[in-house]
């Protein structure tokens, strides 16, 4: 999707949102149309571009959900202007009556939702002696995961929101997941903005070697709240390449992916990281979508796994149905990269493998209506490994499925060995994989 041979234009928006949703939308509509007319492929709006309310109660009252009027209106604008729109944070109704999500939504030029992210880090500060109390958690429900970077016309976009910028683990995780651009749409307070805004944005750009895009709220929203502004774009070397002027405004920046690659090539910090000394924290497992086509193939030791057998895939691992089951629902999880034994694996691959196995175990137990499993790795030939590629066995267990419980290990050791093994039929395996794909897609 991205033509990396030449720079692509993006636009960042700075605005002063109030509790008047119609007025706020009119401002963003004007800026989106301006960005499109200037040739921008993506326009980035700030956090709370839908509204900044006068009270928590009003904020809850004004909130919408993902299929509400606001998202529909922005989808129409994206199509009309042939531009991608980053809604940097809107008040998204949750199942709770007294809380909502702060959700960053990325809409493509066809009006479809290309990505979404619920803010994970909530700004809670209470300093009684200064009469300061700011607690997002009083009315915002925290998100539970980092969203996979989204392929766009300007590169892979990683979605963040405001306070996330203070957590380098967050940005490093997005960079490891392939982000070219990391976004921090914000409504920074004036005090923290004066002290930290530019410094912290530049730090995130330098350490990740990504473009950092930070649309921003500015000015006085109501009698209790003001924002710092200074919306800006920073390149992978840490240089500010665009910044909005005071007040409601728009700025353009060129995203040059060739320059990004040059920076990473000449300062290869990610290849210099000492994973043997320290490890970057895992960012959890994110399913890969769509799953591989039926005709795809994956090397699994001395055999080949067909795409139709795969029912769950993460960045480094995949889960697939088994040719020979010890118990009903016996499935396998393997790393995509060929590794004969666990000591051969890199830390991020190993973490991904076992986090994926945890997800698959939970899903298989739900699918089969059981509450116990055997999770096993036969690591090396003397441990019973028959396929020379690390893999995890997930075996959902039922009451008294073996006369002696530990018989399962004898069966696991011998179930696929010998001249008289009765392998499952392909059609049976395909039916199981199809059912599991549908089930795991809803988890």
Topology:
Blueprint (H helix, E strand, L loop, with lengths): L7 E8 L5 H17 L4 E3 L11 H7 L6 H13 L2 E10 L6 E8 L5 E6 L5 E4 L4 E4 L14 E3 L2 E5 L8 H9 L4 E3 L6 H19 L2 E4 L1 E7 L2 E4 L3 E3 L5 E4 L5 E7 L1 H10 L2 H4 L24 E4 L2 E4 L3 E4 L3 E5 L9 E5 L11 H22 L3 E5 L15 E6 L9 H8 L11 H16 L2
Parallel strand pairs: 1-2, 1-12, 2-3, 9-10, 10-11
Antiparallel strand pairs: 1-16, 3-4, 4-5, 6-7, 8-9, 11-14, 12-13, 14-15, 17-18, 19-20, 20-21, 21-23, 22-23
Helix pairs in contact: 1-3
Descriptive account of the structure:
This protein folds into 2 domains: 8-272, 4-Layer Sandwich (Nitrilase/N-carbamoyl-D-aminoacid amidohydrolase); 297-441, HIT family, subunit A, CATH 3.30.428. Helices cover 28% and strands 26% of the residues. A hairpin with a 6-residue loop joins strand 3 (84-93) and strand 4. With 443 residues, the protein is an alpha+beta fold. The model has no long low-confidence stretch (mean pLDDT 93).
Supply the key terms.
443 residues; alpha+beta; Nitrilase/N-carbamoyl-D-aminoacid amidohydrolase; 2 domains; six-stranded mixed beta sheet; Histidine_triad_CS; C-N_Hydrolase_sf; HIT-like; nucleotide-binding; hydrolase
Summed up, what is this model?
By secondary structure, this protein is an alpha+beta fold.
Determine the fraction of residues in helical runs and give it as a percent range: 25-40%
- Counting helices, strands and paired strands, the structural category is alpha+beta
Beta strand %: 25-35%
- Total number of domains: 2
Tally of strands: 23
What does the radius of gyration come to?
Answer: 25 Å
CATH architecture of the largest domain: 4-Layer Sandwich
Mean pLDDT: 93
């Amino acid at each position: 999707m991205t033509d990396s041979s030449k720079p692509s234009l993006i636009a960042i928006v700075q605005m002063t949102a109030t509790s008047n949703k119609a007025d706020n939308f009119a401002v963003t509509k004007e800026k989106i149309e301006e960005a499109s007319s200037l040739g921008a492929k993506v326009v980035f709006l700030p956090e709370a571009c839908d509204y900044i309310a006068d009270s928590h109660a009003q904020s809850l009252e004004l909130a919408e959900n993902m299929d509400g009027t606001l998202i529909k209106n922005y989808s129409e604008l994206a199509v009309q202007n042939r531009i991608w729109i980053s809604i940097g944070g809107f008040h998204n109704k949750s199942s709770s009556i007294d809380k909502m999500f702060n959700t960053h939504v990325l809409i493509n030029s066809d009006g479809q939702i290309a990505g979404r992210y619920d803010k994970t880090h909530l700004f809670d500060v209470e300093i009684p002696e200064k009469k300061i109390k700011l607690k997002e958690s009083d009315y915002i429900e925290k998100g539970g995961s980092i969203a996979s970077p989204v392929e766009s016309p300007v590169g892979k976009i990683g979605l963040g929101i405001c306070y996330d910028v203070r957590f380098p683990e967050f940005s490093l995780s997005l960079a490891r997941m392939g982000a070219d651009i990391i976004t921090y749409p914000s409504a920074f307070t004036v005090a923290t903005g004066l002290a930290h805004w530019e410094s912290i944005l530049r730090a995130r750009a330098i350490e990740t070697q990504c473009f950092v895009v930070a649309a921003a709220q500015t000015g006085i929203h109501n009698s209790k709240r003001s924002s710092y502004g200074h919306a800006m774009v920073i390149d992978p070397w840490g240089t500010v390449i665009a910044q909005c002027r005071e007040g409601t405004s728009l700025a353009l920046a060129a995203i040059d992916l060739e320059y990004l690659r040059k920076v990473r090539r000449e300062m290869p910090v990610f290849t210099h990281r000492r994973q043997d000394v320290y490890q970057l924290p895992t960012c959890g497992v994110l399913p890969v979508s769509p799953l591989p086509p039926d005709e795809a193939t994956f090397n699994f030791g001395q055999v080949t796994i067909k795409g139709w057998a795969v029912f769950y895939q993460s960045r480094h691992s995949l889960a697939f149905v088994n040719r020979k089951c010890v118990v009903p629902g016996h499935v396998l999880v393997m790393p995509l990269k060929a590794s004969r034994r666990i000591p051969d694996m890199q830390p991020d691959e190993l973490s991904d493998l076992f986090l994926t196995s945890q997800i698959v175990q939970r899903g298989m137990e739900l699918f089969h209506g059981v509450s116990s499993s055997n999770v096993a790795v036969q690591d090396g030939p003397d441990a019973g490994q028959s396929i020379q590629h690390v893999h995890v066995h997930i075996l959902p267990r039922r009451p008294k499925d073996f006369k002696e419980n530990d018989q399962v290990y004898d069966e696991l050791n011998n179930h696929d060995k010998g001249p008289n093994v009765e392998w499952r039929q392909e059609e049976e395996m395909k039916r199981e994989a199809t059912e599991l794909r549908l089930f795991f897609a809803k988890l």
